[in-house]
Amino acid sequence: MEKSYLRDMKGLCVLFFLSTLFVSCSEEEKRYPFEQSPYAEFDDLEFHDSSSLDTLLLTFTIWDIEGDIGSDLNEVNEFELILDELGRPVTISGDQQPSCYLPITSRKLQDIDVNYEADGCRVDFTIPERPPFSCDEYQIIKDDTLFIRRIKGYYDLLIDFKNVNNENYNFQEIFNSSDCNLGNFNARLIDFANVDVFRPIEVNPYKIKKLSKFSYQVSYMMLSSGWKPAIGQNQFELEFQVIDQTLNESNVATSGLVTLEKITQK
Description:
Helices cover about 15% and strands about 30% of the residues. The protein is built from four helices and twelve strands, in the order H-E-E-E-E-E-E-E-H-E-E-E-H-E-E-H. It has helices at about 1-30, 170-175, 225-230, 260-265, and strands at about 40-50, 55-65, 75-85, 100-105, 140, 145-150, 155-165, 200-205, 205-210, 215-225, 235-240, 255. Strand 5 and strand 6 (about 145-150) form a beta hairpin. The chain is globular, with a radius of gyration of 25 Å.
């Protein structure tokens, strides 16, 4: 009788513990653990050496209370084209006077050249003169260098490489090139609303899986043949930041100082 009673009490204790644990986990799941949303956490950085393009693989966790990370890549305005009073693109070497902005999506880029004429645009542009060439102010399209204004939030994953002195790597200077895409590893994330716990998504160059109600793990591949020539045996640091659909910025997360040799996967 006493043994039976003790056995029943032990079973009740186990059930109580499990139910308490379940409730605790459920309550924890409902609470967002950070004051900032989105919030980025560094997980891992790997270097994969190959005979062609080498890969830096960044893995991180992004926390977001609204779940509004990423978007439809085709519908986002990459930059605003600056036009003259006749609706023609302003070039770096032309004599057109800047007059207005026209938002341009990535899908429209193939239609843009110096002979492009817009039907209309927002007339709110004032600038005394065109600035000298920089990757922030100009876009090379079909061998023409067009004056533009980049739109914040087009890239929602921002990547920076720092040397041991906390200075940005200038890949154009390292390789003596004016190519603005060189060393630009900023990226657009796909819409996280399509990712659930049971269905990770793999869309080159990403692998994304949902960890909890508020968190996702992202692996991002950065391909280049220039990692070893640019960085060599030097220490470097990768910094990254995520921006959500309403332009809320995450913290700047970092890999800490590493070397390619240290993070090389055999």
